[in-house]
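seq as requested:
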Amino acid sequence: MVSIKIGSASLKTMGFLLFLWPAMHSEVVAAEASGPLLTFDRREHRAMPDISSVPRIRFLTTLDFPPFEFLDAENRLSGFNVDLARELCETLQVTAKCQIQALPFGELQSALENRTGDAVIAGIGVTPELRAKFDFSRPYLQLSARFLSLKKTAGEPVTPMKLAASKVGVVKDTAHQAMLKAFFPNVNPQLFDDRPAMLKALKAGEVDTVFGEGLALAFWSASGEADNCCAYRGGPYYSGDFLGEGMTIMTRPGEPLAAAFDHGLLELARSGKLNELFIKYFPPGLY
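struct tokens:
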């Protein structure tokens, strides 16, 4: 386990774990936005609960999932979620009480249950089973699905007719395959075993468009591996049915922290600091 106080620089390396997002319920949405798509109105009022009796707030996260959590060149815990925890503590005026603990992904839930931590900020997908056992903050970041195309076709509109005439790749047995089939039924996609195989085929021109997780596609298209081959085609798509609720903070039930985090997130959205974090860690044009 790695345990640090907010702002500390002493860490050790741990393993890598990816997360999956479960299905919830909402329509697919194609939208253009300049920052993270929040699920609450910046104008709404959220009362700040009394957390003066909370002795400390230990955030639980994991490592090696950039840009959310990773070790920087100086071996310090960094990332979007780490900075967000710091900003929340400052906004709630509890920085002196805050700590971050890095654990293997599979140990986060049990650590919360065993009271060795107080809040999980690590991209755990919200499920009905988890909702029966834990409280969650409002989502602070939504996942999007995107079309990525060879640059020669990236400017073409995203319409059922245009897509039906394209060679569209997607990773099989994923939420993105199901989403593509549900909302673009005329498309006959080329199926791939995994994302690297799909992206290799895109760069080689074996398909001219792929559909997948927007963040992953953004980082790949900006990498040296892509060699400036490709660009987004159309805007982002959101769907609770296929992509889940989004990123939240998980806490024990019956405690005031989830409501406090909702208040803090709203204040960070209003002040623009949440969007500043987004710009710092995510590629331009993602949303």
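Residues 1-34 have pLDDT under 50 and may be disordered.
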